[in-house]
Amino acid sequence: MSDGGPDPLAISITLSGLSKLFGGDLAGVLAFARDAEAAGIDQIVVPDHLAIGENTRAYPYGIFPFSNTEPWLEPTTTLAAMAGATERIRLGTGVLIAPLRPPLLLAKTLATLDVLSRGRVDVGIGLGWQREEFEASGVPFAGRAGRLDDTLGACRALWAESPASFESETVRFEQLWCEPRPYSAGGPPLWFGIPPTDRNVVRISEYGAGWMPLSENGSELREGIARLRDGFSAAGRDPARLGVRANVPVVRSAGRGPDLDATLAQLPALREAGVSVAAFALARFARAPAEIKPFLEALAKGVAALREDSRC
User: Which CATH architecture has domain 10-98+187-308?
Assistant: First the structure.
């Protein structure tokens, strides 16, 4: 799944809505990780916010779905704990706001996580949308796309060889040994949660193993995949290796609760469109701790039935 291989369609769970699901015991996410692995889920993804400011109206994808008091676990720390609690399941960020992290620290953190998990890390990265989060971190909000490029270039240099040297507009170093280097050759796979603009297509085609579209609109999904496959071809890469991790739209029952069977029925069409990883937000399907394990088991059972039918 880490390089977007074609079969089978992988199943990913995004861990959000922690206040309702785990209450005052956020260490319950480790039991969740063990339960997800036991159910046969392929990947856990942890989102990222260092802090939330008052102006959530700036959220560019609709109404921000969480209160300001919602807890956000730091993703690399959380995934490191999950790595120790599991053996097989892949561990992802979605999305890690990479420009907020100093490049050397980010390279070291991700390499360490990849080593301790024995290569189970998928790094989902993005630019962030909240100006206050950047300003409080002492990082300019403007120019963050350029700093993302510089940061990834620096990480790749540090992961590729020792000693490493790198120079860009915002990052410079010479003859550094940053050990250990990642377990995964060349570093953990990078997945981009950014829109497929012309510049981003080049960015993803240069650095990326995959794309994480933010929209659940089917036509936008297909158009984005087509553009990125063209970008992969232009970069001399096999377009069939493009991984796509897409959120599965939730189908609701007449009572407005989530209808898991109807939601799963969309997977073959997503697979046909070019999706390689089907993502489910845990908070959309479970609203209390007692609902988590039954949801995981029902999800795994439903996916297994679809795979048995060879439809995804």
Answer: Alpha-Beta Barrel (3.20)
Q: How far apart are CA 232 and CA 2, in angstroms?
A: 16
Q: CA-CA distance, 80 to 112, in Å (whole number)?
A: 9
Q: What is the pLDDT of residues 192-208, one digit of tens each?
A: 999 999 999 999 999 99
Other beta carbons within 10 angstroms of residue 264's beta carbon come to 22
The angle at the Cα of 75, spanning 80 to 312, to the nearest 5 degrees, equals 90
Could you report the per-residue pLDDT of 115-130, keeping only the tens digit for each? 999 999 999 999 999 9
Q: What predicted TM-score, i.e. pTM, was given to this entire model?
A: 0.93
User: What are 121's strand-pairing partners?
Assistant: 91
* Dihedral (Cα; 7, 95, 120, 287), 10-degree rounding: -80
The closest alpha carbon to 191, from 214, 205, 210, 204, belongs to 210
* Residue 107 pLDDT greater than 70, yes or no: yes
Which three-class secondary structure state does DSSP give residue 181? coil
Residue tagged 């679809």 (tokens): 306
Give 223-264 pLDDT, tens digit per residue.
Answer: 999 999 999 999 999 999 999 999 999 999 888 889 999 999
Is the dihedral angle over the CA atoms 4, 5, 6, 9 positive or is it negative?
A: negative
Name the residue ranges covered by the structural domains of the chain: 10-98+187-308
Spatial distance between the Cα atoms of 142 and 309, rounded to a whole number of angstroms: 49
28: its two tokens: 């319950």
